[in-house]
Specification:
Blueprint lengths: L11 E6 L5 H12 L6 H21 L8 E9 L2 E8 L16 H8 L2 E7 L2 E9 L34
Antiparallel strand pairs: 1-2, 2-3, 3-5, 4-5
Helix pairs in contact: 1-2, 2-3
Length: 166
């Protein structure tokens, strides 16, 4: 990971077992990857929530009950953009029109991200989440406190107990 330039992460990739117990570890590691980007607390919460939802979907839906699998995250920045790709090598199951429980993952990711692109084929699923960020030369000085707008909603990051099957 290139951390010599504040507000810049060139490329980071990691794979975890597709297991619900790994989601808290994925969120924690993602938080450390985001640290050099000088994002506000709300921006970090939005990114982590969107990635957590994509990873949870891969854990819950990509693999059958007797299959083991992996969830991969790749993060990179380009000027003004943070991109995170969440990949599984399982089978795609299209969203249900009228879900009886759950089923809010894709709309949630769309609200938390500038764009969400989903691709699936016989090799698995790829979810690309893009977030607008300050370009490195526009980034706030290190240690600058982020000011939340009055009345701005506070985001809740799920803990490891919130991803059990309903």
């Amino acid at each position: 990971m290139d951390q010599d330039v504040p507000g810049h992460v060139e490329f980071v990739h990691r794979s975890w077992p597709a297991d619900p117990d790994q989601l808290v570890l994925i969120r924690r590691e993602l938080g450390s990857w985001l640290a050099p980007l000088a994002l506000t607390e709300d921006e970090v919460a939005d990114v982590v929530l969107a990635v957590d939802e994509a990873a949870a979907n891969a854990v819950r839906h990509a693999y059958g009950p007797d299959e083991s699998g992996a969830v991969e995250l790749t993060l990179w920045t380009e000027p003004g953009t943070l991109s995170i790709e969440v990949v599984d090598h399982g089978s795609w199951r299209p969203p249900v029109e009228e879900p009886t429980h759950g089923g809010h993952g894709i709309p949630l990711m769309s609200r938390m991200s500038e764009s969400v692109l989903i691709h699936f084929d016989g090799r698995g699923s790829r979810v690309l989440l893009r977030h607008r960020i300050a370009a490195p030369e526009d980034a706030a000085p290190q240690g600058a406190a982020a000011q939340a707008e009055p009345g701005a909603p506070k985001h809740h990051l799920p803990d490891e107990t919130e991803h059990g099957d309903p």
